[in-house]
User: Fold this.
Amino acid sequence: MTATPGSRPAGALLLCRAQPPAVRPPAQLLRERLLLAPAGPDWSVLVPEGKPWLDDGEPVDRVVTGWATALAVAAATWPVVALWWDADRAGFTLAAGFRRTVGYTWLADGTPAGEDEAMSTFADRLALDPVLDVQALEPLTRPDPDADAHARLVGLVAVLARTGLALPAGLVPGRNPDRLRAAARDRGAELLEGSWREAVRAELDVVEDTRVGPYLHGPRARVLGAAQLAAGLPLLAWGAARRSGGWATAGALLVAHGALALAGDRLHARVAP
Assistant:
Protein backbone atom coordinates (compact mmCIF):
# COMPACT_ATOMS: atom_id res chain seq x y z
CA MET A 1 0.00 0.00 0.00
CA THR A 2 2.88 2.33 -0.69
CA ALA A 3 1.75 5.84 -1.64
CA THR A 4 3.00 7.52 -4.78
CA PRO A 5 4.24 11.05 -4.09
CA GLY A 6 1.77 13.60 -5.44
CA SER A 7 -0.93 10.94 -5.91
CA ARG A 8 -3.18 12.25 -3.13
CA PRO A 9 -4.42 15.84 -3.07
CA ALA A 10 -4.52 17.50 0.33
CA GLY A 11 -7.64 16.93 2.39
CA ALA A 12 -8.99 16.76 5.92
CA LEU A 13 -11.78 15.53 8.18
CA LEU A 14 -12.71 16.97 11.57
CA LEU A 15 -14.06 14.44 14.06
CA CYS A 16 -15.99 16.07 16.91
CA ARG A 17 -16.96 14.05 19.96
CA ALA A 18 -20.42 15.56 20.17
CA GLN A 19 -23.71 15.36 18.33
CA PRO A 20 -24.42 17.69 15.38
CA PRO A 21 -26.66 20.16 17.30
CA ALA A 22 -23.74 20.92 19.65
CA VAL A 23 -21.19 21.10 16.83
CA ARG A 24 -23.19 23.31 14.49
CA PRO A 25 -22.89 26.72 16.32
CA PRO A 26 -19.12 26.78 16.91
CA ALA A 27 -18.51 25.33 13.45
CA GLN A 28 -20.56 28.16 11.90
CA LEU A 29 -18.39 30.67 13.73
CA LEU A 30 -15.42 29.40 11.73
CA ARG A 31 -17.08 31.05 8.71
CA GLU A 32 -15.94 28.22 6.44
CA ARG A 33 -18.09 26.11 4.14
CA LEU A 34 -18.31 22.80 5.98
CA LEU A 35 -20.49 19.72 5.61
CA LEU A 36 -21.76 18.37 8.94
CA ALA A 37 -22.99 14.81 9.46
CA PRO A 38 -23.53 12.45 12.40
CA ALA A 39 -20.79 9.84 12.83
CA GLY A 40 -22.09 7.55 15.54
CA PRO A 41 -24.14 8.15 18.70
CA ASP A 42 -21.62 10.56 20.24
CA TRP A 43 -19.62 11.79 17.26
CA SER A 44 -20.00 14.16 14.32
CA VAL A 45 -17.82 14.73 11.28
CA LEU A 46 -17.07 17.98 9.46
CA VAL A 47 -15.98 17.79 5.82
CA PRO A 48 -14.43 20.99 4.40
CA GLU A 49 -16.23 22.25 1.29
CA GLY A 50 -13.42 24.60 0.35
CA LYS A 51 -9.67 24.16 0.00
CA PRO A 52 -8.04 27.06 1.90
CA TRP A 53 -4.72 25.23 1.96
CA LEU A 54 -4.68 25.48 -1.83
CA ASP A 55 -6.09 28.99 -2.14
CA ASP A 56 -3.89 30.54 0.57
CA GLY A 57 -0.85 28.31 0.19
CA GLU A 58 -0.88 27.36 3.88
CA PRO A 59 -0.12 23.71 4.85
CA VAL A 60 -3.27 21.68 5.42
CA ASP A 61 -2.12 20.52 8.86
CA ARG A 62 -1.68 24.11 10.06
CA VAL A 63 -5.13 25.13 8.78
CA VAL A 64 -7.01 22.26 10.39
CA THR A 65 -5.04 22.54 13.63
CA GLY A 66 -6.30 26.11 13.90
CA TRP A 67 -9.85 24.97 13.19
CA ALA A 68 -9.68 22.12 15.68
CA THR A 69 -8.24 24.40 18.37
CA ALA A 70 -10.97 26.97 17.80
CA LEU A 71 -13.74 24.37 17.93
CA ALA A 72 -12.38 22.67 21.05
CA VAL A 73 -11.95 25.94 22.95
CA ALA A 74 -15.40 27.10 21.90
CA ALA A 75 -16.98 23.81 22.91
CA ALA A 76 -15.10 23.46 26.22
CA THR A 77 -16.71 20.06 26.89
CA TRP A 78 -15.80 17.93 23.85
CA PRO A 79 -12.57 17.27 21.93
CA VAL A 80 -11.84 17.48 18.21
CA VAL A 81 -9.64 15.12 16.21
CA ALA A 82 -8.46 16.62 12.92
CA LEU A 83 -7.30 14.10 10.33
CA TRP A 84 -5.24 15.57 7.48
CA TRP A 85 -3.15 14.43 4.53
CA ASP A 86 -1.27 15.74 1.53
CA ALA A 87 1.07 14.32 -1.10
CA ASP A 88 3.97 13.88 1.32
CA ARG A 89 2.52 13.27 4.78
CA ALA A 90 -0.56 12.49 6.83
CA GLY A 91 -1.42 12.78 10.47
CA PHE A 92 -3.83 13.90 13.15
CA THR A 93 -4.18 16.69 15.69
CA LEU A 94 -6.18 16.38 18.89
CA ALA A 95 -7.52 19.57 20.45
CA ALA A 96 -9.27 19.57 23.84
CA GLY A 97 -10.26 22.83 25.49
CA PHE A 98 -7.36 25.10 26.42
CA ARG A 99 -4.89 22.21 26.56
CA ARG A 100 -1.91 22.12 24.26
CA THR A 101 -2.73 20.27 21.06
CA VAL A 102 -1.16 16.88 20.49
CA GLY A 103 -0.53 15.25 17.13
CA TYR A 104 1.28 12.61 15.16
CA THR A 105 2.62 12.49 11.59
CA TRP A 106 3.48 9.75 9.09
CA LEU A 107 5.37 10.12 5.83
CA ALA A 108 3.52 9.16 2.65
CA ASP A 109 4.95 5.63 2.74
CA GLY A 110 3.74 5.19 6.33
CA THR A 111 7.06 5.82 8.08
CA PRO A 112 6.33 7.10 11.61
CA ALA A 113 7.55 10.68 12.08
CA GLY A 114 6.07 11.52 15.48
CA GLU A 115 6.79 11.02 19.16
CA ASP A 116 5.49 7.88 20.86
CA GLU A 117 4.39 9.96 23.85
CA ALA A 118 1.88 11.70 21.61
CA MET A 119 -0.10 8.48 21.22
CA SER A 120 -0.31 7.88 24.95
CA THR A 121 -1.43 11.47 25.50
CA PHE A 122 -3.98 11.04 22.71
CA ALA A 123 -5.40 7.93 24.40
CA ASP A 124 -5.48 9.59 27.80
CA ARG A 125 -7.30 12.73 26.67
CA LEU A 126 -9.93 10.72 24.80
CA ALA A 127 -10.34 8.39 27.79
CA LEU A 128 -9.49 5.34 25.70
CA ASP A 129 -8.90 1.98 27.33
CA PRO A 130 -5.39 2.21 28.84
CA VAL A 131 -4.64 -1.39 27.92
CA LEU A 132 -6.59 -2.60 24.89
CA ASP A 133 -6.83 0.68 23.00
CA VAL A 134 -3.27 1.72 23.75
CA GLN A 135 -2.07 -1.67 22.52
CA ALA A 136 -4.04 -1.13 19.31
CA LEU A 137 -2.42 2.29 18.82
CA GLU A 138 1.15 1.09 19.36
CA PRO A 139 1.56 -0.56 15.89
CA LEU A 140 0.83 2.82 14.32
CA THR A 141 4.10 4.12 15.78
CA ARG A 142 6.21 1.23 14.45
CA PRO A 143 7.59 0.69 10.93
CA ASP A 144 5.35 -1.37 8.65
CA PRO A 145 6.26 -1.76 4.95
CA ASP A 146 2.67 -2.77 4.15
CA ALA A 147 1.00 0.31 5.67
CA ASP A 148 1.20 3.70 3.99
CA ALA A 149 0.00 6.98 5.50
CA HIS A 150 -3.55 6.32 4.31
CA ALA A 151 -3.62 2.95 6.07
CA ARG A 152 -2.32 4.57 9.26
CA LEU A 153 -5.25 6.99 9.34
CA VAL A 154 -7.70 4.17 8.67
CA GLY A 155 -6.12 2.26 11.57
CA LEU A 156 -6.55 5.26 13.86
CA VAL A 157 -10.23 5.53 12.91
CA ALA A 158 -10.63 1.81 13.66
CA VAL A 159 -9.42 2.41 17.21
CA LEU A 160 -11.78 5.37 17.62
CA ALA A 161 -14.63 3.12 16.46
CA ARG A 162 -14.36 1.46 19.87
CA THR A 163 -15.64 4.74 21.34
CA GLY A 164 -18.66 4.76 19.02
CA LEU A 165 -17.22 6.62 16.02
CA ALA A 166 -18.93 5.43 12.84
CA LEU A 167 -18.02 7.48 9.78
CA PRO A 168 -20.71 7.59 7.08
CA ALA A 169 -20.10 5.33 4.09
CA GLY A 170 -17.58 6.81 1.69
CA LEU A 171 -15.91 9.09 4.24
CA VAL A 172 -12.52 7.38 4.29
CA PRO A 173 -9.54 9.43 5.48
CA GLY A 174 -6.96 9.87 2.75
CA ARG A 175 -9.56 9.71 0.00
CA ASN A 176 -9.76 12.36 -2.72
CA PRO A 177 -11.42 15.43 -1.12
CA ASP A 178 -13.87 15.84 -4.02
CA ARG A 179 -15.09 12.29 -3.46
CA LEU A 180 -15.35 12.91 0.27
CA ARG A 181 -17.58 15.90 -0.30
CA ALA A 182 -19.71 14.00 -2.81
CA ALA A 183 -20.09 11.10 -0.37
CA ALA A 184 -21.05 13.46 2.46
CA ARG A 185 -23.68 15.19 0.33
CA ASP A 186 -25.05 11.82 -0.81
CA ARG A 187 -25.50 10.88 2.86
CA GLY A 188 -27.51 14.03 3.53
CA ALA A 189 -24.79 16.09 5.23
CA GLU A 190 -25.80 19.61 6.22
CA LEU A 191 -23.97 22.55 4.63
CA LEU A 192 -22.91 25.13 7.21
CA GLU A 193 -22.59 28.68 5.94
CA GLY A 194 -24.52 30.93 8.32
CA SER A 195 -23.77 34.46 9.43
CA TRP A 196 -21.93 35.39 12.62
CA ARG A 197 -25.18 36.70 14.09
CA GLU A 198 -27.04 33.46 13.41
CA ALA A 199 -24.17 31.38 14.77
CA VAL A 200 -23.88 33.42 17.97
CA ARG A 201 -27.62 33.21 18.56
CA ALA A 202 -27.55 29.43 18.04
CA GLU A 203 -24.50 29.14 20.28
CA LEU A 204 -26.32 30.91 23.11
CA ASP A 205 -29.30 28.56 22.73
CA VAL A 206 -27.06 25.49 22.85
CA VAL A 207 -24.89 26.45 25.80
CA GLU A 208 -27.89 27.54 27.85
CA ASP A 209 -29.28 24.03 27.48
CA THR A 210 -26.04 22.27 28.48
CA ARG A 211 -23.83 22.08 31.52
CA VAL A 212 -21.80 24.96 30.06
CA GLY A 213 -24.77 27.27 30.62
CA PRO A 214 -23.87 28.21 34.21
CA TYR A 215 -20.49 29.46 32.98
CA LEU A 216 -22.28 32.21 31.05
CA HIS A 217 -23.42 33.83 34.29
CA GLY A 218 -21.66 35.33 37.29
CA PRO A 219 -17.96 35.31 38.18
CA ARG A 220 -17.23 32.16 36.19
CA ALA A 221 -18.53 33.79 33.00
CA ARG A 222 -16.33 36.83 33.53
CA VAL A 223 -13.26 34.71 34.24
CA LEU A 224 -13.87 32.46 31.23
CA GLY A 225 -14.61 35.39 28.95
CA ALA A 226 -11.54 37.31 30.05
CA ALA A 227 -9.35 34.22 29.58
CA GLN A 228 -10.67 33.64 26.06
CA LEU A 229 -10.12 37.27 25.11
CA ALA A 230 -6.62 37.23 26.60
CA ALA A 231 -5.73 34.13 24.61
CA GLY A 232 -7.56 35.09 21.43
CA LEU A 233 -6.31 38.62 20.80
CA PRO A 234 -2.59 37.81 20.54
CA LEU A 235 -3.36 34.61 18.62
CA LEU A 236 -5.45 36.60 16.14
CA ALA A 237 -2.66 39.15 15.72
CA TRP A 238 -0.03 36.41 15.36
CA GLY A 239 -2.05 34.57 12.73
CA ALA A 240 -2.82 37.74 10.79
CA ALA A 241 0.81 38.88 10.82
CA ARG A 242 1.94 35.53 9.42
CA ARG A 243 -1.06 35.18 7.10
CA SER A 244 -1.95 31.96 8.87
CA GLY A 245 -5.64 31.54 8.17
CA GLY A 246 -6.06 28.57 10.52
CA TRP A 247 -4.59 30.29 13.57
CA ALA A 248 -6.17 33.64 12.74
CA THR A 249 -9.54 31.86 12.67
CA ALA A 250 -8.80 30.22 16.03
CA GLY A 251 -7.94 33.62 17.50
CA ALA A 252 -11.06 35.22 16.05
CA LEU A 253 -13.25 32.47 17.46
CA LEU A 254 -11.65 32.81 20.89
CA VAL A 255 -12.28 36.55 20.83
CA ALA A 256 -15.87 35.97 19.74
CA HIS A 257 -16.49 33.47 22.53
CA GLY A 258 -14.85 35.68 25.12
CA ALA A 259 -17.07 38.56 24.10
CA LEU A 260 -20.04 36.18 24.03
CA ALA A 261 -19.37 35.02 27.59
CA LEU A 262 -19.09 38.58 28.90
CA ALA A 263 -22.11 39.78 26.95
CA GLY A 264 -24.15 36.76 28.03
CA ASP A 265 -23.34 37.42 31.66
CA ARG A 266 -24.37 41.08 31.38
CA LEU A 267 -27.55 40.21 29.51
CA HIS A 268 -28.48 37.60 32.08
CA ALA A 269 -27.90 40.06 34.89
CA ARG A 270 -30.24 42.57 33.25
CA VAL A 271 -33.10 40.13 32.68
CA ALA A 272 -32.69 38.08 35.87
CA PRO A 273 -35.54 38.62 38.38
Summary: DSSP finds ten helices and seven strands in the chain. The chain has a mean pLDDT of 80.
